[in-house]
Specification:
The chain is of the alpha/beta class. The protein has a single domain (about 20-225), classed as 3-Layer(aba) Sandwich (Rossmann fold). The chain has helices at about 20-25, 35-50, 65-80, 100-105, 115-130, 160-165, 190-195; strands at about 85-90, 110-115, 135-140, 150-155, 180-190, 205, 220-225. It has a 7-stranded mixed sheet with strand order 3-2-1-4-5-7-6, sandwiched between helices. Strand 2 (about 110-115), helix 5 (about 115-130) and strand 3 form a beta-alpha-beta unit. Helix 2 runs antiparallel to helix 5 (about 115-130).
Length: about 230
Amino acid sequence: MNPMSLTRPICPISPISPMNHELLAKYFPSLTDRQKEQFAALDGLYRDWNSKINVISRKDIDNLYEHHVLHSLAIAEFIRFKPGTRIMDLGTGGGFPGIPLAILFPEARFHLVDSIGKKIRVCQEVSKALSLENVTTQWCRAEEVREQFHFIVSRAVMPLPDLVRIVRGKISREQLNALPGGLICLKGGELVEEAKPFGKAAQITPLSDYFREEYFETKKLIYLPL
């Protein structure tokens, strides 16, 4: 399938605002100049696309860096992907968490999947504008993906048991990283009952362990080896 054709101008890379620069630098002080430029470009790119396609809640676009970029990068606080790691972002929407992670880990490979063609088009154009050669996209349901990956990441797409049913069998047995391959989800609220079917295998980490902003007080990361 090919996404609906949409033509939007690519926003030039512009300086990141001081507040957002400080937010990223506080937690990721070792960013290269190129990574800083790529993160800076996200604001203009997503504002531009959001004016036509609601990939981010329009009332939330001013919180792009805290609620979407930094939230996505919580996965990088949990695990540092080794070069050659293959990661699928299931239900990526406008590219979260996949695009921020692809900026941070240029030697890992990210495959962004969504069932909505317009959103995949946004991912394609944002990746192109940032020259992210480690990003591929696919417009399809997750069940249609045939490749295997070391990890599958997702942001609050569906309940954990449903997600596991879809991705089981898509995890490679090859191990490149400090943790076994599996599913890494970003979710909010109470997750104990949702994770109960998986017993001690499901590891729940409050994002307040990583980030001090109030927004993250109810946010969590779930890791489930598969």
